[in-house]
Amino acid sequence: MENELYLKKVYSAAYMLTGKEKDACEASSLAISRSAKEVISNNQVTERTFKSTVIELIDIYLNTQNVCYNTNEDINNIQKALLSLDPICRAAVIWKDVLGFQIDDGIPASNYTRQELLRELSLGRKNLKSMLQIKTGIKR
User: Fold this and answer.
1) Stated pTM of the model
2) Structurally, how many domains does the chain consist of?
3) Range scoring the smallest mean pLDDT among 57-61, 103-107, 125-129
């Protein structure tokens, strides 16, 4: 992928995790600098490099997260619903459902087993579905 697309995708993932522009800029910059050695000099970034950067990004997020929950009942978009999840649920949902990686593809949550991550992913999905149904009034 082109460098510009790589930067946009990393920033987008950072914003989905943090919910704040400044925090997303800082986290994405740090993650990119940590994985910079993998960037190919011909202005192309491999999928492996992108994945490595996202691993760094989630590691940064999980290690610097001040736990806070969005209690606003007026959740009007998926971003707000994602932000209301606890950190490990949010990271698992973004890792698997947004970025398309497999749970056992190296998510940087080393203190969780595969089963625990799958349980957190399931819980995150369930909570998202519930929150979005409340807002839209649509039940499936």
Assistant:
1) 0.56
2) 2
3) 103-107
